[in-house]
Amino acid sequence: MWPDLPEGTTPLHPDEVEDLIPSFIQTKEALNRWEQENILAAERWLFTARTRRRIEMSRDFLLLVHRRMFDRTWRWAGQPRLTERNIGVDPRVIGIEMRNLCDDADFWLTHGTYGLDEAVARIHHRLVAIHPFPNGNGRHARMIADAILFRAGHPRFTWGSTDLVETGEVRRRYITALRAADDHDIRPLLDFVRS
Question: Would 74 be classed as within a structural domain?
Answer without folding.
Answer: yes
